[in-house]
Amino acid sequence: MLRIAIQAKGRLNEQSIDLLSEAGIRVAESKRKLISRAEGFPLEVLYLRDDDIPQAVSMGVADLGIVGLNEVAEKGFPVEQIMDLGFGGCRLSLAVPKTTAYEGLAFFRGRRVATSYPNILARYFAEKGIEAEIHTIEGSVEIAPAVGMADGIFDIVSSGGTLISNGLVEVEKVLFSEAVLIACPGLDSDKRRETEQLTFRLNSILDSRGMKYVLMNLPKERLGDAIRILPGMRSPTVLPLAQEGWCSIHAVISQDQLWERIERLKEIGAEGILILALENMIR
């Protein structure tokens, strides 16, 4: 049985449980529990603070973990990054007061920067040849310039609304992050096999996102035109209809291409077009 560590509360907790649920794995809410048993897959769920997950996985306390890439990069524990999970997107950025005359990274030389991610920032400044004072604080990093603790900050940015409300402006994007699945490097063969089974389920869900299943009827004489328009995992599926001279075409189309392709298909005579959501897609 695998043990997976997820965030005990917050947005990543909810999105992790939702993803596992889509994979047929039912997980109880933490509600002060440390460990719970999942249904639908041989899995235990360990509820931890997000910044404790990389260490727990590295030590083998948990076999797997769902955590932000920013925490993996900051903690630096040896773990295997198995796959990106497509949620929890954010970035780690440098920001300064909006009244600052910022002209580039040289601004930070000899300045104090407040952050909860000192290791990532130290590596970045070292790569850029910037010597600055990194002041580590927990909690509300964004207030540091306003109270005179720092000249700038290095923190998580999602929409940028928190920066604006605190009179700050983003000046350098350093690291783009999202939730990732990580694994203990020392997993035995049985647990690696179970991990492959789990990632198979997760990939089928992620591959289906942003995709639509499209069915339509079309005159057979325009089939070649339709095949040139339509994508497919190999090629569109074509089925005969009872009505002579007509066929049915089934294809998977990405959401961002959907309406342009539909318009072109209507121009060549497609009708009875159905557009369905995809839950899973197994390649």
Describe this structure in words.
- The chain has 283 residues and is an alpha/beta fold.
- It has 3 domains: 115 residues, Periplasmic binding protein-like II (D-Maltodextrin-Binding Protein, domain 2), CATH 3.40.190; 88 residues, 3-Layer(aba) Sandwich (D-Maltodextrin-Binding Protein, domain 2), CATH 3.40.190; 68 residues, 2-Layer Sandwich (Alpha-Beta Plaits), CATH 3.30.70.120.
- 28% of the residues lie in helices and 32% in strands.
- The chain is built from 8 helices and 15 strands.
- A 6-stranded mixed sheet has the order 2-3-1-4-11-5, sandwiched between helices. Strands 8-7-9-6-10 form a 5-stranded mixed sheet. Strands 13-14-12-15 form a 4-stranded antiparallel sheet, covered by helices on one side.
- A hairpin with a 5-residue loop joins strand 13 and strand 14.
- The protein is globular.
- Its main location: cytoplasm.
What's a quick, concise take on this entry?
It catalyses: 1-(5-phospho-beta-D-ribosyl)-ATP + diphosphate = 5-phospho-alpha-D-ribose 1-diphosphate + ATP. This protein is α/β, with parallel strands linked by helices and 283 residues long.
